[in-house]
Amino acid sequence: MKSAIIMHVDSPLFFQLAGELNLFLQHCPDLKQAELWLFYYQDKPSALPAINLDIGRIELIKANSRYLPEAFLQQLQQLQQQRNVELLLFNGDNLGGELATRLAYRLQGSSCLSVEKVALNDRQLTVDKAAYGNNLNAIFTLKNAPYCLSIARRAARPANAITPPATWFETSTENNTDTGWIENVTLTVQPAQDQSKNADVVLAVGRGISHSLVSKLPDIAKTLGAYLGGSRPVALNGWVDINSMIGVSGARLAPKVCLVAGASGSAAFTAGICDSQFIIAINNDKNARIFTLADVAIVDDLEPVLLELDRLIKSDQLIKSE
Ligand SMILES: Cc1cc2nc3c(=O)[nH]c(=O)nc-3n(C[C@H](O)[C@H](O)[C@H](O)COP(=O)(O)OP(=O)(O)OC[C@H]3O[C@@H](n4cnc5c(N)ncnc54)[C@H](O)[C@@H]3O)c2cc1C
């Protein structure tokens, strides 16, 4: 089935979304090859994300807006017809979801959002996705091509940067967009987002932390060189910043090392740390569920363990600086 991946060079998440796409592709062995369609607004990309798929052709599409779904849709419609593509894969951000839905409607095809897996059987397309907050797994067989899908967001590291090819295919689509129902668009660049997604080390604390330890947590995290996050009760109690909640209702992180202290390991919490490369868990209950995920399990009171770790690293740093 002829396929295309659609991405936006100007998205601040360009490489992050490509990393998520790569994770998705690991679950889709039926997808062997795809074209890459890249929208750009002003400058052609100086680097591209490495995508773990045979990219047969890269199309550069000059858009007349940095963010205007109307403009992208008109160009996508033309390109789909020119290239006769049946499967169009969009990123899992809001724009990807909007484009997948609206393009399928315009092309009288099918759309499905937050897809985790795609399988092709005898020219029939089946997609898997989580429903009701991961309580159900839904499998859909889609009826009408073209199929416009957005992929589910996951905790992933940004894709590596590679040098772009010497030559591009440059699409000649009309982009004299009639913005239809939009009177005016104003875009404002927001201050940089927090760096939690790129953290190599995460200290994730749960309700087991004692009150006396709460004020020391930022300092301990700093010693560990870690991003400090917490389970939902911890974040809701204000013991860590509310924006650093980890889990289905918060951030999904994939650090190299995750130190989990005093969290029981509920499914809602572990969804946010299960892609960590190495998990160390401290819990005074030897039967805590978190230990089923952990590479190293410390059955103990978390307070003396964290304080001793903090002391050891500080004294080690002191010795090295002398
Ligand atoms: C719709 C919905 C969405 C949710 N989303 C999220 C989410 O995104 N993130 C999230 O975290 N939760 C979420 N939850 C809540 C989730 O179900 C759990 O209630 C929550 O994760 C439990 O947090 P916890 O592990 O910190 O606390 P607890 O489950 O109370 O665990 C505390 C742990 O600390 C251990 N402990 C206690 N004292 C010590 C000590 N001195 N030393 C060592 N260990 C100790 C205990 O043995 C226990 O295992 C959600 C729930 C719902 C219904």
TrEMBL record:
Q: Where is the Electron transfer flavoprotein alpha subunit C-terminal domain?
A: 198-273
Which keywords does this Swiss-Prot/TrEMBL entry list? Electron transport, FAD, Flavoprotein, Transport
The record places domain Electron transfer flavoprotein alpha/beta-subunit N-terminal at 65-160
Q: What is the lineage of its organism?
A: Bacteria, Pseudomonadati, Pseudomonadota, Gammaproteobacteria, Enterobacterales
Give the PANTHER family listed for this entry: ELECTRON TRANSFER FLAVOPROTEIN ALPHA, PROTEIN FIXB-RELATED
Provide the protein name.
Answer: Electron transfer flavoprotein large subunit
Look up the record and give one Gene Ontology term from the biological process aspect. fatty acid beta-oxidation using acyl-CoA dehydrogenase
The organism of origin for this protein:
Budvicia aquatica
The record's annotation in InterPro entries points to:
DHS-like_NAD/FAD-binding_dom (IPR029035), ETF_a/b_N (IPR014730), ETF_a/FixB (IPR001308), ETF_asu_C (IPR014731), Rossmann-like_a/b/a_fold (IPR014729)
Does the UniProt entry include the keyword Transport? Answer: yes
